[in-house]
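Subject: sequence -> structure tokens, single chain

Hey, anyone have a minute? Need the predicted structure for the following. Not urgent.
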Amino acid sequence: MKIVKFLILPIALIALGAAYFSPSPPSSKPNILLILTDDQGYHDVSYYGTKDIQTPHTDALAEAGMRFDNFYANCPVCSPTRAALLTGRYQEFVGVPGVIRTYPEDNWGYLDPKATMLPEMLQIGGYHTAIIGKWHLGLESPNIPNERGFDFFHGWLGDMMDDYWKHRRHEINYMRKDKEVIDPEGHATDLFTKWSVDYIKEQAKDDQPFFLYLAYNAPHFPVQPPEDWLAKVKAREPGLSEKRAKLVAFIEHLDDGIGQVIQALKDSGQYDNTIIVFTSDNGGLLRDAANNGPLRDGKQSVYEGGLKVPTVMVWKDKILAGSSTDYKALSMDLFPTLVQAAGLKTTHPIEGKSFLPTLLGQEQSDTNRPLFFSRREGGSRYGGLTIQAVQLNDWKLLQNSPFAPQELYNLAEDPAEENNLIDTEKEKFRELNALLRKHLQEAGKVPWQKE
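Reply:
Had a minute. Here:
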């Protein structure tokens, strides 16, 4: 049984007991702000004590809510995690086993047009739904945001930007306001921040609850912080390498944007009734000098460093401030959690599991729940095949290359994944291997290319 660890527990809350954590009644549905960063490393936040980076606004979220120390992205790369997050399903089961890209020969996913999306569920509950920032789940109808449950879209349709000021990918402009092609000036992080602030202020004029999915491109490469932010980091941390200094400045600039968005909630009087989620789509990229803490490897890998991400949730007077949990959750678990918090019910099959009880201070077990991770990719490194892992309690079986042997680790005793036990723990290997093969069989039934 996983127990929520309370860092701050005022005496008054003890007296109130479980009643303090009762969900909002349907008549006062909470707004939802879901902030997703791109490739932010597990320890590229200063609330974990990382010395060379300062993220005061993200730290403030951790102080105001619950920190998740065992939160996993569904996949070590972009599109699959986003598909899982927005459908509540394993990404392979909705047609996105790999990265959706501009050109067919490099594309490894097609979002199932029949998949039920989180914004569609929230629309049923009376929410106005918006995405600002990176979509990355389709470039054409029917898989564009305004056709998948979002009332409003202001952001980037594609995957990465080749330049954060020019906003192009392969010389194509994927910047949109709803379905209109736009060409704004400015750093993409600043644009997404400003547009989010504007949206929050506009929504304050209406009693309708809102769902804002704010998906920043940063700190995904190319690492391009504004010059003044880089100069500030270099002056403060003269011993940093150029590469690390640029990434730190990039993340600190991003953190400042997050702070502006949170301040807009407070200034407009909407903070107290807003659920705030902060998380990343996968681990940090090591070649950009990301910090994944003590974990092995990073983005693109199914070792822990590619999957475990910094995550915080805030909901004033519902989630205890300054608390943390070691409950294991996945990106796809946000779907049923937020639906339930909005007073709605999920009636279609999903693999995601609501962790609302954990948020509300109640005991919740993650024991005996297998967690699956996989990615399909091309090129000579993958050859169109998959890498995959399954975690069950303390044990993890993985294959980090289609052409490499499987590996088995006990994460409780070996969190850095250094001691491969596959030759000695044969019974455990057979148990996890059977689970993983069954999952891959089910995933193989779902087409991931447009017919």
